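Input record (one chain):
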Amino acid sequence: MIKRFKIPKRISFRTRLFMVMIGMLAIAGLLILGTTTIQYESQRENYHLGRLARKEFQIQTHIEYLAEKHDLMNKPVKVWEEFTSDFEKINKIHNVQFSLFKLEGNPIFIYHSPLEVVANNYKLSKSLLDKIKQSQGGSYVEHYKSDIDKFHASYKILNDRFSKPYAILFYPYFEDVSFSENELNTFIENLYQIYILLLAGVILIAYFLSKYVTRSLETIKISMSKMRLEKKNEKIHLKNATREIDSLVQSYNKMVDDLRDSAEKLAKTEREQAWQEMARQVAHEIKNPLTPMRLTIQSFMNRYDPNDPDIQRKVNDFSNLLIQQIDTMSEVASAFSDFATLPKPNMKDCDLVELTQMAVNIFHHKHIFFSSNKAHIYYKLDRTQWVRVITNLVQNALQSVPKSKIPRIGVQLFSEPNQIILSIMDNGNGISIENKEKIFEPKFTTKNSGMGLGLGIVKNIVESHKGTIKCVSKIKKGTTFTIVLPEKE
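The corresponding structure, as predicted from the sequence alone:
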């Protein structure tokens, strides 16, 4: 079972234009949304880092003031602890919770610490100290994110008036995340509403714009679908067309003119070819009886004997044959003069054995052999056309045999219960495979002379008698033409 694949329907230009415009808007909206979100996050981050730096500077200034006032720089932790109350006031004044560490990481004051520092016995780890010391300006910011704590942590190395470090300040900065997220969500919702309104407007504009742009193309499409070779095609006239559409319309109108000219030339050529074909066929039909007439006259001249006691019968047969062929030419001429078809079959009951024997005897060739499985085979057909079929096939058989070879032509007639079979065999050069499919086509021939109408006419005659003809051939061995006539009605 052969599977049929359905060809997918192509998307129209109008639909493509509509989809492109909507797609461009969608992409632009996504880019705007993504860019805005990234920009907002960046500004929010910079804002909070700025607040962290300002707050850290205020705490640093306050701590440096107390350290210088009480001469705490480079003093042990116990000395610092004596002024714990002063440092606790910093938390209340600035509303913060800071921590202070020695340079080696040991705590001085602990009011708030990340979990990592708490887990390390409130001491800064060596890796964190290395990051702080390697940072630019002795300031390092790290983001802590856990289920409990989520904040920016700033570590700052404090220096005395001689730029000698003496402590590390830890300051945690907590963002108001809920406010930021609500602000961002509100902004995105407003952007979505504007974008939806914009999308609805663009859809309407794209719909009407695509319809306007493709209206001219639709007109051209309808006109092209109605174009026919056999009728007069109308030209297209559009007002206010764009330059591209106008160029397309002009090309279409030019094609209409060219098609009209081509149709006229084609009709003229077909009429000429019809006349030429009719002339060739009439010439072939007139020439066809001349060959047996010429052969009969030559044979009669060679065998004529005035003293032959059977001479009167032979003269009568000779005269009847000539009259029959002359009548055939007269029918062809009458048909041509009346612009009608070639002679229609004149169906009469005939003895195929006698008629075929007579057609074979026209050639008077000793290498033509005729045989039949019955003495008489009666069939209703056109005598003249049957003789024409036999003479055409026998003549082709003789011409297929090269001069260097003795011809052997066999004509066999068989009568079967349901059909009558005529076979004409030769020992000629045969027919090539590429030519075998063309031998019954009009004007096809492999001879140097002739018009190639003989076998085409033979096939038409056989088919007009509701019969069939086929050919079997082998190169250098010969060809057999077989005619099968159906049983009598």
